[in-house]
Amino acid sequence: MSDDVWMRCSACKDDIKFRDAHFVCSVSTCNRRAMRLVFCSVACWDSHLGEARHRDAGAVEARAPSRDEWQREQAAEATTPTPVAPSPPRRIIGAPAAVGSSSQGGPALSSEYDRDVLIVISKMKKYIKDRSGMSTSDSIAEALSDHVRALCDEAIRTAGAEGRKTVLDRDIPRKR
């Protein structure tokens, strides 16, 4: 990137220079710090709608900051500490031997599994859209993953209580 380029268009990768007009999506999830989408034209903005599937969105004209403003913003972000969410408590399932290095050579449990998304989000969103015509919030993934983890934990306990090392479909708790 040359010295006069602020960012590149998220669609066509053309340069957007400092103080140039550009377009941003009116939907807030497209404008977060972690995923800042900027477009050099309305046509480029329009090209992201096929993937984003916004119900009601618009291209909002904006102006890129000056080089000095951008450098001050970057410096402020670098000095602002990023809040770190506390790790969830570690789940202990079954006998204490299941935690850490297993005597059977199985995988150790760790808190990384407490944060993993266990749902195929695109398929879940499609299911909800096809069944009801409703949109789905991104935050539902974490809640559904927690439910899946709870179901798996119960199935693990059931299989372990029956002396098996294989979790079967019958170990999954059924709807009441």
Short description:
By secondary structure, the protein is of the alpha+beta class. The protein is built from five helices and six strands; from the N terminus they run βββββααβααα.
Write structural notes for this entry.
This protein has 176 residues and is an alpha+beta fold. It folds into two domains: 5-79, no CATH class; 96-171, no CATH class. Helices cover 32% and strands 12% of the residues. The chain has helices at residues 42-47, 49-52, 67-79, 121-132, 140-161, and strands at residues 5-8, 15-17, 21-25, 31-32, 35-36, 59-63. Strands 1-2 form a two-stranded antiparallel ribbon. A two-stranded antiparallel sheet has the order 3-6. β1 (5-8) and β2 (15-17) form a beta hairpin. It is elongated. Residues 90-108 have low confidence and may be disordered.
Keywords:
two-stranded antiparallel sheet; 2 domains; alpha+beta; 176 residues; 32% helix
Q: Spatial order of the strands in the main sheet? A: 1-2
Q: What is the straight-line distance between the termini?
A: 60 Å
- Taken in chain order, the helices and strands follow as EEEEEHHEHHH
Cα gyration radius (Å):
24 Å
Catalogue the unreliable spans.
90-108
**What is the total tally of β strands?**
6
Sheet-strand content, in percent, reads 5-15%
Structural class: alpha+beta
**Which sheet architecture does the biggest sheet show?**
2 strands, antiparallel
Total DSSP helices: 5
The figure for the number of domains is 2
What is the 3D shape? Answer: elongated
